[in-house]
Amino acid sequence: MDEQLRVGLVGAGPWAEMIHAPGIANHPGTTLTGVWARRPEAAASLAATFGAEPFEDYTAMLSTVDAVAFCVPPGVQGPMAIEAARAGKHVVLEKPIAESVEVAEELAAAVAEAGVASLVVLTRRYAPETKEMLAQLHRTGGWTGADSRWISGALLDGPFSNSPWRHDKGALDDVGPHAFDLLDAALGEITDVLAANVTDTGLWQLILQHAGGATSTVSLCLSLPMQPPFADFTVFGVNGHRTLTNRDTPALECFTNLLDDFVAMADSGTTTHECDVRRGLHLQRIIDLARRKAGA
């Protein structure tokens, strides 16, 4: 790009401080122009750290930027992202993209109508090791099933343990999109949730149906005191099995890779990507179906 993409950041919590703000501020194609948060003092502090302008009025910030990166709970993100898209701003969205399928549909429609770029922060999809594994799986073929487990004590201790929306929605909404996205990318589109159950301890277990006949199982929990956290992803079929446990690429580097794609999309006028808002809507529908199947 001839000029850096001016990005406003919505949110000033731990993930914004760890990933979004430094990623945007240090990327050669973006500049962190402004920060808005529900707590003005948090916005001011984060903005000062990265040389951005704090805003107490979200609409005022929109008038100064080309794009908005969101790092707030889904119930906050959905309506604000719709406003940003309708104002012609490109959007970087956290997962899940909204609090409900209805709002997610409205957001996807707003992005499409505005013709702006959108990407969802499905962190591991931007890791080179993940891209290589998916490419290998597609070259080989013959995969009939998969198993994915994302288990941690994130709600018990650490930077996200005081997150109200994570305590309210649990692992299904927080890490579920990551698991569903990888399974979907590996085996084909998830077309149904065959079974879903959640325990009193917050352990979700699901069986998913994929286009083409493959099935997969998923276990998700944020309230088991495991150190380090445990996450793996295994596919199997006539050609044996393949497992992805390599998380060597740090989250900040994954976010930088996302910004590479985002800047290129904005520069070229491209509005489609395998992780764009339509992907977020698809994952939102899976979450909704799983919750209904579990009676939760």
TrEMBL record:
<feature type="domain" description="Gfo/Idh/MocA-like oxidoreductase N-terminal">
    <location>
        <begin position="5"/>
        <end position="117"/>
    </location>
</feature>
<protein>
    <submittedName>
        <fullName>Predicted dehydrogenase</fullName>
    </submittedName>
</protein>
<dbReference type="InterPro" id="IPR050463">
    <property type="entry name" value="Gfo/Idh/MocA_oxidrdct_glycsds"/>
</dbReference>
<keyword id="KW-0560">Oxidoreductase</keyword>
<dbReference type="GO" id="GO:0000166">
    <property type="term" value="F:nucleotide binding"/>
</dbReference>
<dbReference type="InterPro" id="IPR036291">
    <property type="entry name" value="NAD(P)-bd_dom_sf"/>
</dbReference>
<dbReference type="GO" id="GO:0016491">
    <property type="term" value="F:oxidoreductase activity"/>
</dbReference>
<dbReference type="InterPro" id="IPR000683">
    <property type="entry name" value="Gfo/Idh/MocA-like_OxRdtase_N"/>
</dbReference>
<dbReference type="Pfam" id="PF01408">
    <property type="entry name" value="GFO_IDH_MocA"/>
</dbReference>
